[in-house]
TrEMBL record:
GO MF: iron ion binding; trimethyllysine dioxygenase activity
Family membership: Belongs to the gamma-BBH/TMLD family.
Catalytic activity: N(6),N(6),N(6)-trimethyl-L-lysine + 2-oxoglutarate + O2 = (3S)-3-hydroxy-N(6),N(6),N(6)-trimethyl-L-lysine + succinate + CO2
UniProt cofactor(s): Fe(2+); L-ascorbate
UniProt-recorded name of the protein: Trimethyllysine dioxygenase, mitochondrial
Main location: mitochondrion
GO CC terms, sorted: mitochondrial matrix
Gene name of the record: Tmlhe
Length: 386
């Protein structure tokens, strides 16, 4: 259909040109061209009868909007779009609001700003640890900690009393502790009390945790309370940095890893612990509108039988997985940290892989999983983009 001309009684403003098409409004604002469906424009009306500004919730019943709706009149000035609908209702949108909230605007933005790193980048950044008292007692200390965590996917708090109880207080400063099959606060040594390699003295290759949950745990907290022996350094790898390298070198591998669903499985029958968990999802998870990576699910220990992939895709998937594994195992991507009593590590389990060296002697750790939503909620309330 030939687009209608600008409304004859409302010429386009100098900063905004517009055209009516048969099913949408096209707005050129600055360098951005937005295409806004009429149903979308009616559904998102922020008038008092359509939107409750006190609760920030929609009042309009979306199912009541005519799917063939079209405005009777459109007017645009320097800051605002005015749409008059067939029933006489008037909707107003600020041009800046539309630029931020349109599909075209969101496509140009990232949900979660990050600094991707290898060992050298992280070490040169000299990211400071936050003192326990500042973390617990001041918004400034908490905000600095969360900013570091959001940017790098890891952050440290120092001078924490090395007990499970004090670690719990620390964790609850930023989130609700997520209760899982391992309880709320876990506390373990290498006694193989659970059916998991973590409960041994063996080395652990890089991995993310709880890949066998339908929603893997968002944040993991580690505190080494005691170690009388050698080894046991913690390995940290930025999975998003490795995935970014794959995207640049072989985008077809990245797309396959983001598309193919896999099963991860945890079967446990040790003592009184009986569990059978299955989680399904691709290795790489991206927002479809801007291709931004938001979760990596990588655990070779817990990956189940690959039976969700047809035979003509399996070998290509193995090539893609090998490319990602090679990046994750590059020595210059490995950050090694010696955990010690009083130093608590927070890890973004949706981004950063962790592992450890084999060790000798008695080693005692405690920690927990945190709900990701609550950590991000705390960050947003402090004014951070999360």
């Amino acid at each position: 259909a030939t687009p209608a001309r600008c409304h004859p009684t409302a010429p386009a403003s100098p900063c905004c040109a517009w055209q009516l098409h048969h099913d949408h409004l096209e707005l050129r604002y600055g360098s951005m061209v937005m295409r806004l469906d009429f149903v979308w424009l009616r559904d998102h009306c922020r008038s008092a009868s359509c939107y409750n500004a006190k609760t920030n919730q929609r009042s309009l019943d979306t199912a009541s909007v005519d799917l063939a709706i079209r405005p009777q009149a459109v007017r645009v000035d320097e800051t605002t779009v005015f749409l008059t609908w067939p029933d006489g209702h008037v909707t107003r949108y600020g041009l800046e609001w539309l630029a931020r909230n349109s599909y075209e605007g969101q496509k140009q933005q990232v949900m979660h700003p990050r600094i991707l790193w290898n060992a050298e980048i992280y070490q040169q950044a000299r990211v400071p640890s936050i003192d326990c008292r500042s973390f617990l007692e001041t918004d400034e200390g908490l905000k600095e900690f969360l900013q570091n965590f959001l940017l790098y996917g890891i952050a440290f708090v120092e001078n924490v009393t090395p007990t499970k109880e004090d670690t719990k207080i620390l964790a609850e400063r930023i989130s609700i502790i997520r209760e899982t099959i391992y309880g709320r606060m876990w506390y373990f040594t290498s006694d193989f009390s659970r059916g998991d390699t973590a409960y041994t003295k063996l080395a652990l290759d890089r991995h993310t945790d709880t890949t066998y949950f339908q929603e893997p745990c968002g944040i993991q907290v580690f505190h080494c309370l005691k170690h009388e022996g050698t080894g046991g350094r913690t390995l940290l790898v930025d999975g998003f940095h490795a995935a970014e390298q794959v995207l640049h070198q072989a985008p077809e591998h990245f797309q396959l890893l983001a598309k193919v669903p896999l099963k991860h499985e945890y079967v446990e029958n040790v003592g009184g612990c009986h569990n059978h968990m299955i989680g399904v999802g691709p290795v790489l998870n991206v927002y479809p509108w801007n291709n931004e990576l938001y979760l990596i699910r990588y655990n070779n220990y817990d990956r189940a039988v690959i039976n969700t992939v047809p035979h003509d895709v399996v070998r290509r998937w193995y090539h893609a997985h090998r490319a990602l594994t090679a990046e994750l195992r590059r020595p210059d991507n490995e950050l090694w940290v010696k955990l010690k009593p009083g130093k608590v590590l927070f890890v973004d389990n949706w981004r950063v892989l962790h592992g450890r060296e084999a060790f000798t002697g008695y080693r005692q750790l405690c920690g927990c999983y945190l709900t990701r939503d609550d950590v991000l909620n705390t960050a947003r309330l402090l004014g951070l983009q999360a």
